[in-house]
Amino acid sequence: MPEYVVAPLDRLVEQFERLPGIGHKSAIRLAYYVLSMSEAEAEKFSNAIVDAHKKIRYCKVCCNLTDKEVCSICSDDKRDKSIICVVQDPRNVMAFEKTREFNATYHVLHGLLSPLNGSTPDMIHTKELLQRLNNDEVKEVIMAMDGTVEGEATAVYLSKLIKPLGIKVSRLAYGIPVGADLQYADEVTLSRSLHGRVEL
């Protein structure tokens, strides 16, 4: 007996399965939810995806996501430009911004060093960070990577490049558990980690 197949539905399920953390059952549930939308809602949903792909880019200063050439944080004159907080990805910026405690700037690496997985310095935004340090404005760089082996390796590698420039390099205090993802830390823990940062 031939298997019952609805090709467009199958393709939709396949696309949802490609998303991180979405298994087959969740993909089916999401696909049926999309089918239950009105045509206008479905179009709005698909347009939001296409629009994000077309308009979102990397900030030319900090490499965070933005829909402008320079993001709103880098273009804010009230921000302390003498401190740069280096993070793994844009979700970490969002986590720090929720604390409302950090009024300086960021640099987003979009990854961590991991030789075993083939992630080398030229594959993350190291060069852009070093270019930002070619002036007398920056006084401190905070290493705010996850407390993993890769996070530690990245922090140590970058600190070796930055310290000879006469810039203070610090890291978050260990209010963040070793092995934890910054994006899941609560605002109070992140705030305490910033205030209790130690020099590398």
Task: Give structural notes.
α6 links the parallel β5 and β6. The protein has 2 domains: 7-55, RecR Domain 1 (Helicase, Ruva Protein, domain 3), CATH 1.10.8.420; 78-199, 3-Layer(aba) Sandwich (Dna Topoisomerase Vi A Subunit, Chain: A, domain 2). α1 packs across α2. The model has no long low-confidence stretch (mean pLDDT 87). The chain has helices at 7-17, 24-36, 39-55, 90-99, 126-132, 149-162, 187-195; strands at residues 57-58, 65-66, 80-87, 104-108, 140-143, 168-171, 198-199. The longest helix has 17 residues, at 39-55. It has 200 residues and is α/β, with parallel strands linked by helices. It is elongated and about 65 Å long. The strands form 2 sheets. It has a 5-stranded mixed sheet. Strands 1-2 form a two-stranded antiparallel sheet. The chain has 7 helices and 7 strands; from the N terminus they run αααβββαβαβαβαβ.
Overall mean pLDDT:
87
Helix content: 40-55%
Q: What is the molecular shape? A: elongated
- Counted up, domains total 2
End-to-end gap = 67 Å
Describe the main β-sheet briefly. 5 strands, mixed
Main attributes?
200 residues, alpha/beta, Helicase, Ruva Protein, domain 3, Dna Topoisomerase Vi A Subunit, Chain: A, domain 2, 2 domains, five-stranded mixed sheet
